[in-house]
Task: structure prediction
Amino acid sequence: MAKWNLIIDVAKCEGCYNCFLACKDEHVDNDFLPYSAAQPKHGSHWINILTRERGQFPTVDVANLPVPCMHCDNAPCIKKAGNDAIYKTGDGIVIIDPLKAGGQKEIVNSCPYGAISWNEEKNVAQKCTLCAHLLADGWKEPRCVQACPTGAMRFVKVEDTRVKQMIAEENLEVLHPEYKTGPRVYYKNLYRYLKCFIGGDVAFKKDGAVDCAEGATVALFKNSQKISEVITDNYGDYKFDNLEENSGRYTLEIAFKDYEGKTIEVDLAAGKSVGTILFE
Ligand code: SF4
Ligand code: SF4
Result:
């Protein structure tokens, strides 16, 4: 049977919070029984946007990671809830029944992703429903996906065999696979948030003036093995991304025109800007 899956491309997320606001617009003050009770205006977010800065000046970037409920196939919250208050629909959505879950505050801490919040006024645990009430009305996507201006979120209803193909084709990953909860939210380009880069720029001096070294070759080595090689762009910039944090020492070999080549050692911490490599 086809099931819903949410695919989030971290490289496309600009951190605009449109998804967050669309969720608020849909759910604050609005009961959608039997799927959800109204979300409070404050103190609750059914999608969280985490932000991480990487590198050092002047080579920096920012990655944003939208984190909703993962609608896990092996959900700890379902196991924790008494009275069958949390259940999975036939098409893959995990729902907290707002009536049955009343008073069960212990549900909040059962989610390793921190996706459940407590509604004090309604005395109930709450989380993202993937706008199940709209899907029941024939919508093809929840409000967050509809509101995303960059196409960072996709919502697809497909068989699990197709999901496996998509994982392989698009290098999709789940967040915290070590939790073993079987998320139905998949991330593309997750390295943009979780991994590190080594980057910088190359310049050269000619007739007393400094210019960007476009077309320089920069090779990255680890334990004497070449990992990757890139060509600098028209600003002389280069970047090696998707490197493990605190993964130790790397070597850069830089060649530009007929200048004598340079070798630089880099100790990688949480993203490393090498600064300007100048050929004179
Ligand atoms: S992410 Fe948390 S709340 Fe959502 S289904 Fe998984 S365990 Fe339950
Ligand atoms: S609406 Fe799209 S781009 Fe904006 S924060 Fe949400 S996922 Fe990111």
About this structure: The mean pLDDT is 96. Residues 160-170 form the longest helix (11 residues). The pocket of iron/sulfur cluster (ligand 1) is lined by residues 69-72, 75-77, 94, 111, 113, 115-116, 127, 181 (CB under 6 Å).
